[in-house]
Request: fold
Amino acid sequence: MEMKILSCTVNGKPVQVGYDVRECLLDTLHDRLGLTSVKRGCEVGECGACTVLIDGVATDTCLYLTAWAEGKTIETVEGLQAPDGTLDPVQQAFVDEFAVQCGFCIPGIIMSAEELVRTGKTYTRDEIRKALSGHLCRCTGYQNIITAVERAVDLVNGFVGEDGDAA
Amino acid sequence: MYDITYFHEATSVQDAVKALTEHPEAKVIAGGTDVLVQIREGRFGPTELVSIHELRDELWGVVLDEDETICIGPITWFHAVNQDPICQERIPVLCEACDTPGGPQLRVSGTIGGNVANGITSADTASTLFAYGARLVLEGPHGRRTVPIEEWYAGPGKTVREHDEILVSIQIPRDHYEGFYGDYIKYGKRNALEIATMGCCCLVKLTDDHETIEDVRFAYGVAGPTPCRSHAAEEAARGKTVAEAAELVGDAALEDLHPRDSWRASKDFRMQLIKEMTKRALVNAANKGGSSASWK
Amino acid sequence: MAIGKSATRVDAVDKVTGRALFTADLVPHQHLVAKVVRSAIASGRVLSIDVSEAQKVEGVIAIFTCFDPDLPSYQIYTAGHPWVVDPAHRGDIEDRHILDARVRQYGDNIAVVVAEDTVAADRALRRIKVEYEEYPIIFDYEDAVQPPAGTPPIHEECPSNVQAEWDTQTSLEGTGYDSIEEIHGDPAYHHGSYTMRTPRQQQAHIETCLSYCYMEGDRLVCVTSTQIPHIIRQSIGLALEIPWGKVRVVKPCVGGGFGNKQDVLYEPLNAWVCKKLGGRCVLLELSREEVFAYTRSRQPKRFEAKATWDDDMNLVARSCEGYSNSGGYASHGQAIVANGQGSFRYMYSGQEKACYTKALTYYSNQSTAGAMRAYGVPESTWAAECMMSDIAYDMGWDGADFRLKNAIKLGYSDPFWPAPLVCVSNGLPECIQRGKELIGWEEKKKLYANETGPIRHGVGMALLCYKCSVAGLELETASARMLLAEDGSVMLELGATEIGQGCDTVMSQMCADAVGVPLEAVHILSTQDTDVSPYGAGAYASRQTYVTGIAIKKVAAELREKILAYAAELIPDGVNLDLRDGWIVGGPDRDNPQPLMELGELSCIAYYSRTNSQQISAEGTAQTDLNSFCLGASFVEVEVDIPLCKVQVKNVVQVHDSGQIINPATAAGQVHGGIAQSIGFGLYEELLEDPATGRTLNDNFLDYKIPTTLDIPDLTAEFVETWDPTGPFGNKSLGEPPAIPAAPAIRDAILDATGVKLYEAPMTPQRLYEGFQAAGLV
Reply:
């Protein structure tokens, strides 16, 4: 099958990469760009392990053809750490709250959490549960994951438990 | 990697139609959440694809026509329908239904057009669109035609769409939604990432007392091979109070609906669900219109 | 002290930044892909395989079938257990070829395609033509013991299709009865008989099963997502009939295992294909569907049980026969149901005069089952607790009081374990008390007592009892190596495998305290590489903290000894030298020692001394026959929607006695995850197979329903920290016990809410419907 060149922005940098037209974005990000955080769990949009942000929206990359990523802005957990090494608040909250066990589902969940955090709103635990309901985790019972996202949302927005815009 | 042998990213609806005409075996792909899964299963073998994914200018978004017909672009994501102000104001039940397929990520890939174009009875928005009496506009090599949703389904997973036609608009005329309150209940075995075991949408119009049913529609997914209405339940409810009707509609719906046994659920259990969900959907819908009835 | 602190996981930062590398992240760019050709029947024999059309597919490199003359003749066992030297004691059944013409389950491995990419491999798979001779399907126990006439046994070596049948009957001496049946018929008592069923649950780790193999010189390297790297090496050696030292197995980060990866899955086939292709790198990655249908699962079981009790809340006798379906191959076979029946006996041994259990495992043409978290005990606990629940309900007793009275007591000694198996620490009464407080047991029981209407609520509970390892029955051995670095930090190398449970973190904590250095000064090598890592059997049986901890303690003592000997040379006038928190300390006042030299200074001198150069290191092996009991209690609150036949779990509180807790935060995480899996077992999860074809019906995450974020409520995990004398640091075990009791507690809560007794897990809407209908509720 023919090869094409994809031009898009990945983790803040313009990228041009050759790809096989049969590929989905999961294949291209993981196998060609070495973004190993994008995990293959089910390939049919049921587990959420391959979630990245495409133009700011958390999307399953297993069901997203690479061709569609032309011109888009893509973010993965590899791009979250600050240049000085500081973890992003969501990453730090996952570390501090013991939200990580085997870690396979975690990069995808962090990207969904990033989308939430960037809305500038706060969320109840039930709202966080709903926002993360496209991710399966088998290790944690979700307890510490929900707590970590709650913490990150509150930290970033500077207040707890009320609705409103970012402080 | 998918077994794709031809891929065309359409630049316009007419370009897509042309590509389909030239490739009689090609499939239309929009969000990809059905078609890619089927390619991966090997259902089609090596597959040719015509993508309408990027036709945002022509096929995305919700607009209100001059006559207040709501026109929904078929490649609008479930989530975008759910968030759309026109839909939220005028057809909030469709917003509810659009909040139920899969999980959040699926709802920003999966499209409302794909949900009806796939012809599947369990499609979450299909029963609601059925209840609203949606009209589906197709564009082919010879122009456009409009199909009422009652005539859309040609069998399980089949529709009347011709190979070289593209679904270009989903329309709900004003008199189909005005004055109606509605409720959609999706029955899944867990609370997310579900395929409906049963889906039921009720639209109800109440008289000024907020308790008497002036008009009502019940539509279902998974109660038969294609989405369908229960006219018997509607007949039983019309003119009654919500409380009276609540006691009748469940059994009445069973006159029309004939679910089947499968490993996912027995026929008897599905009948129990139809009975209970019909009642609850009616009461919930009426509650939104001011009725004080309770299903408990 | 590092032990007892919620130290941050050593792998957390790597896992949130995407730097943690799993098997799929390490595959060399140039590799071939292998796909297994699977039988389209569940029982029979392959007569021929026509690969001619498949070979023509562009990109196909090779197709090897079950008729390949190079296939090893040797059958291997796949259960992840260490080698047993004495042939007479080998319990695991050697019943599997890597490819076989005899088909024993749907999707059995009959050939393998190797191609340049997955699309080419899939195209080839569709063009392979197979001719079969079909046999009738043996689906369940009745078929297995009485197959249709002319049906050959599933394995020639096992003509009865029954792998094993073991009976255990506690002594009746002094009971005044000649048989347990006599007790079950004594009119002085109450009696009940019960049939319970438990599902084929799947481990459903989010990383699939995959490996890749290549050759390095004449040695074979296998990188694989496994819980048992050293056992994989042994199995590849056995299966390919090559010396074990010619095999190197590497285990990177593992995305969950839960017992599925305590089995030798496709590594020997992968290795064989690689060898056939002259050592080219071959990736064998299963799809999610293949993981569901063609790896392992929890053995489905049926229990036939009886109970006898008196008017004073005392159990008098219990009997339980467990029938377990291992599918087409034995895998862990009889060990699982036998282990479960043990816990059935220990758990409520407090008052009863007699207990009888039977464990029976049979072959069928269903898919192969194996180990899953808590190894038979969630199933037997389901059986035990259904009975406890019914008895308390029918007698009007408080379920907590009734359970506590009959539960295992301090000093209990199991009569059947080959080595002493004694309850030497028991925090169960405190676990129950604390659980009642946290759930609001008394208040909720009252609050929900008189509910009517479609939506009802209930609270329920169940207990757990689980051994700390397999010590006393099977070999428990672990090795450790510690190398002192120039800066005084300790490089820790273990065979114990991190699979997500947090083992690397707690091993580091134990090492820090045992050596006498700060936790930051311990650097654990997370990847097991059998060329480098000391031997470890792997992650199973909740054994690593309990057993590997002993090795750490032993090797740390040796390292300290060497360090202090070197210190004595450097500090000739030092007295009472000791190593504490990274410092050599000493002085006349033992209670108030003075810092004398930083360990880093000592180590650097030792490395580069012109007269006495040493890399100070220690390594060693520890083994143990000691074992103990982990205990705990689960409390659950549910809301039941009767007309819609749906249960929502509103609250779960689980309190564990696992001895001293090494890391409270990671321990709580283990409990949360175990509860979620038990909620799945109780309400949602069941792999279904079509009896007509043997084919798995729900081999995907949409139809096989593991709980989502919206199905699990907030969870509370607490610990009652007893000191257990058998554990290296007063600890017991925690890996598996959390997955045991929530499901029967939910069952108890549904009974409390509705009065309906359910005996089959999972309690799906369909089964709730049937139960409610029988009770006239719908």
User: Anything to note?
Assistant: Residues 160-167 of chain A have pLDDT under 50 and may be disordered.
